[in-house]
Design a protein that fits this description.
Transferase(Phosphotransferase), domain 1, alpha+beta, 6-stranded antiparallel β-sheet, 10 strands, single chain, Phosphorylase Kinase, domain 1, two-stranded antiparallel sheet, 325 residues
Length: 325
């Protein structure tokens, strides 16, 4: 258990914990002071949960933390415009710990505040943020990883610039490994191939798996924080049945998976996009949403450049580009 006032010593300095900002089964994040950077976010392995876990789980948690450090330290300074900046790292009580730039909360909290104040995000703003997330994912993919846990809680808001930054890279998997892998990520934001296992009980994912979650985020932004029914069904199945949830959900749909985007959800998205009444193109935005949320990964955009062109078309800055067959 960590407490306010505890000192965390990393490679470049000492940090005094002040208040816990977030927590999960895997890790906890604290606001801390110390060093030349002033207040920082200190991310620590959840030691209390770690002591209760099986040795294999403990090893996996430590591996996730090491993977995050490895990715963030590999970035060049100019790569981190939309990726949270690593300030320091080391070991605390024998477990990996990192100091990150302190931002202004996550996208989920921002959207909740927007809704409470009856403020809408708008299509133009949603597209601008989508472009920033796409840029962050492009860096993850460029460095040889797929992210696999894109969700509002992992997108941090920089209030000073009005931009988003991607955080939490413990679920990264190598793009070079094309074999089926074990379950990873968050059920309510996953592509079909990430939630429903294949014939060998593993999950075959690639960079385009991240693009499905990007589409789910796009729907969330434009519809003032609504989530897809498909995503809700996956989340409910996971909560009720754990790893057997995928089988139970497919059984309820006669061996298939629920459609990622229902017709009435597409209509709702289009209505919200039109209600924004800004310079963006609602029809092109819906085409982008459908492309990102394609049930089969081979039907989604192939790379970040293709997505950026579709974002530009929806933003009204260029004419739409026809996707190659």
């Amino acid at each position: 258990m960590y407490h306010s006032g505890d000192i965390v010593t990393l490679a470049a300095g000492h940090y005094r914990l002040r208040e816990q900002l977030a927590g999960s089964a895997y890790g906890v994040v604290w606001r801390a002071e110390g060093g030349a950077a002033g207040d920082v976010a200190i991310k620590l392995v959840n030691r209390e949960q770690m002591t209760r876990a099986e040795p294999a789980v403990q090893a996996r948690w430590a591996e996730c933390a090491a993977r995050e450090i490895a990715f963030l330290t590999s970035l060049a300074p100019w790569d981190a415009r939309h990726i949270v900046r690593l300030l320091d790292h080391g070991l605390h009580d024998g477990l990996p710990a990192i100091a990150l730039e302190l931002l202004d909360g996550d996208l989920a909290a921002h959207m909740a505040a927007q809704n409470a104040a009856a403020r809408r995000t708008g299509l133009a703003q949603a597209l601008a943020w989508l472009a920033q997330i796409n840029s962050a994912l492009a860096k993850v993919h460029q460095y040889g990883w797929r992210y696999l846990d894109l969700k509002p809680g992992n997108l941090l808001v920089d209030a000073a610039t009005g931009t988003l930054k991607l955080a939490d890279f413990g679920t990264n998997r190598s793009l070079l490994d094309t074999t089926a892998h074990s379950y990873a990520g968050t059920a309510s934001w996953q592509a079909p191939e990430q939630f429903f296992p294949g014939e060998g009980a593993g999950h075959l994912t690639d960079a385009r798996t991240d693009y499905f979650a990007l589409g789910a985020i796009f729907f969330y932004l434009v519809t003032d924080g609504a989530t897809l029914r498909y995503s809700g069904a996956c989340a409910d199945a996971w909560r009720a049945h754990g790893r057997d949830g995928a089988v139970q959900l497919q059984a309820a749909w006669n061996g298939a998976a629920p459609p990622p985007l229902a017709d009435d959800e597409a209509e709702r998205f289009l209505e919200c996009a039109r209600a924004a009444n800004d310079h963006a193109d609602p029809a092109a935005a819906l085409a982008l949403l459908r492309a990102l949320l394609a049930a089969r990964r081979q039907d989604r955009p192939r790379h970040a450049l293709e997505i950026s062109r579709m974002i530009a078309a929806a933003s009204g800055s260029i004419h739409p580009v026809r996707r190659a067959a």
